[in-house]
Fold this protein.
Amino acid sequence: MPARRGNYYSGDAAAFCRRPLMDQALIRELKSLLGPANVLSQKEDLMLYEFDGSVEKARPEVVVFPLSTEHVSGIVKLAAKYQVPVVGRGAGTGLSGGALARGGGVMIVFARMNRILEMDLENHRAVVQPGVVNLDITRAAEKAGLYFAPDPSSQKSCTIGGNVAENSGGPHTLACGLTVNHVAALELVLPDGEIVRVGSRHGDTPGYDLCGLFVGSEGTLALVTEITVKLSRKAEAVKTLLAIFDAVSDASRTVVEMTASGITPAACEMLDGWTLRAVEDYIHAGFPRDSAAVLLIEVEGLREAVESQAAAIEEICKVNYARDVRTAKDSNERDLLWKGRRNAFGALGRLAPSNYVLDGVIPRSKLPEALEQIHATGKKHGFQIGNIFHAGDGNLHPIVLYDPRDTEQFKRAIAAAEEIIRMCVALGGALTGEHGVGMEKNELMPLLFSDADFDLMRRIHDAFNPDSSLNPGKIFPLSKGCGEIRARKRGQPARDRP
Amino acid sequence: MHTSEALLQTFAIAGRAPMAVLKPGTAEEVAEIVSFAAAEKLAVIACGGRTKLELGMPPQRYDLALDMTGLCQIAHYDAGDLTFSVDAGMPLMNLATALAARKQFLPLAVPFSSTSTIGGAISSGVDSTLRMQYGTSRDFLIGAEFVDGTGRRCKSGGRVVKNVTGYDLHKLLIGSLGTLGVITRLNFRTYPLPELRGACIATFPAMEAALNFHHSLLNSGLPFSNLELFDPQFSALLALYSKQAGSGIPGSPGKNAWHVFASFEGIAGVMARMQRELQERCERAQAAHYETLDPQDSKRWSGALQESFDWLRSAAANVALLRIALPQWAPKDVAELHLVLKQSPLRSAFALRACNVAYLALLAEGEDAQTNAAMERCVSHVRSCVEAKDGSATLLHSPAWLKDRINVWGPKRADFPLMQRVKHAFDPHNIFAPGRFVGDL
């Protein structure tokens, strides 16, 4: 067993927990289990895995690439033997630090467990390994007129394992629900290495809804090694509208009225003027550069329903002073509009060294108020905050552009972010709609949850992950009742990439 | 607190009455009662309309009944957001009325709709006939408040339609039969009431043709609200029930015919399209009889099917009602099941409901040893066939003696130890409805 004590972790991991140094014997054992090619332990290799899509940073001590469930079980057992933590990771596109090794230790990257094991098209099911890329499921199903509904913006690269851990959403969550609504069964590896299946292919077994618990548990209860997903049937007709506004308030009022009148489009996205100009310069999606906001609205279903819904939406837009409402003429135009939406974060990357994409939820009727407050918060902290988000379900994504090399500016970015999330809660909303709590918002959790809530969540956590060996330092606030574990200090530049 | 024997008997489960019935008026009072129960190790069962107390196994212990009907207010209704929060004891009927006033509804078309509470509907996890279109309550329950087994008030989720903050503990409460906590409040998203609702009914003299027709509709991609297929015995019972309920179903189900019922909703254009598509498909499938139902009749049929749990369980002196879920119900699976049923001397009624769930009622008038043995044999036989296909068969209703011999939930599955951990985390003193749930949880 390891004898020395020390600090192996970069960044704040050291502050988060102190434990014995990783034993080289563990690395040797991992190599013998997986083969040397599936184990990384050199600093320059590990540095690639200390980031995800968030502003957080934490470096693992060893990165492993299992090829099978048995490998994962073996890795977990070894980690337990040497008392080091384990964190799972897919493509590393997460936005809340969920797949960062906050406690150092072993990072299990599922990139090589990326096979689609079965396509049961007749029953609308696919059985996949966690490393399968989200969009690849749809690609494998589309010839049968089926698709996998959850569509995060990163769907070309994010993996289904990460989607399951974070309960990811996307623009079409509005009508289709989050990942949890599209998962029927899971194969799990528990922290002691036990392999167990929950749920069933038909998704209807007697007993507690364990799938509902594990999906979205952010890798803190078990590692997911196989997923049975539900496939949806493509709608017969789709119509994509672009409503153009000269005032942000008109666009947000349109969303409020649309919701209140009972129209639920398949997607309803908003881009404010500042954001859409950045996108237009980069993608040329057809967003008018001189507008204050656009709504990208999609309706789908039977032809007859789509026609009538689109007409009703156009009417509401016009009543709220939309300058113009355009309809995508064909699938090329539709794809281009969506390309603009999906690549928006990339477009903004051209404007500043880094950006901080927030994720908060508000009741949809509070949209105009929330956008005004975000604007005011930006002004107060000296930022132009862009907004590109899932307006239809009240899921905000304010974007703060900043330079991480400027410590003072980063502190202000964090302060602005926190202010906005607090505002979401004050408006009756929640901390996160689809990115997860991770290590980004765990300290804000007491805004929503009481001691009794935490005690129960902690008991659930401990029922599966009693030693916190799995993804430590996530979801739960560290600043409360965690003994020697100290909260990391936010507002220090964790990210040093250019 | 009530302790009169007559009242206690109205809260009895499987012949066992509680020591006392308590009727809290607030969530705080629920927490106080549960704290007391936890300290005294008293078993607590929360009740609403008491329409489905028979679900599950008989409780191992049952000291206190909580009459939750005192918590019956709508706490928030944000119609513009299509969300609301409601106390657990709110009757479904009253809730529906309040939502309808704003042209909205909760797509929870469950049995006992005139007497159930929302808490009971969620806690029991009974099937909704709108599941095909709207999903299960898991898809529209967005948050919950409840008292855990230590007597503390907890919550999960929230009042917004999209939320991944913290563990989704409210999902665990669905169908947990009161074994994890006492639900005090539930938050839902609502849906706009459809402009129009319609339905069609088609009959076929032969099972095979009906099955193929049903299967073709399932694969048509048409947006049905509900799609059910039922055998001649089921339709005869349905006719009898609706006659007794005074809502005689016109175009009354033909004798000896297999029926396919399809319902749908939307604007006039969608109705016309669905009716046209169905008519064409019926003609192609050579249905013996086909009828587009007018709105009144559509409603009657849908209502009768929604209540099938209720009327099936009272269709004979002795009824075993099985809910069977399979990965898929291909025509051959239904045919195989009916071969099994043919070997039994008992009468039976079968309906293939939406989303790969089927209801099978075994009916017996007598309770003699021979009949009982036949019933037990048939349940076991059906169950082994279902389990061989990776499905599950749960007894929704059964005579008391059968529960002594067969576990209504079926065998424990591989994930049972995980369920035990969940139960222990919520209810460390094992005071909530002990023994009623899967694996005697």
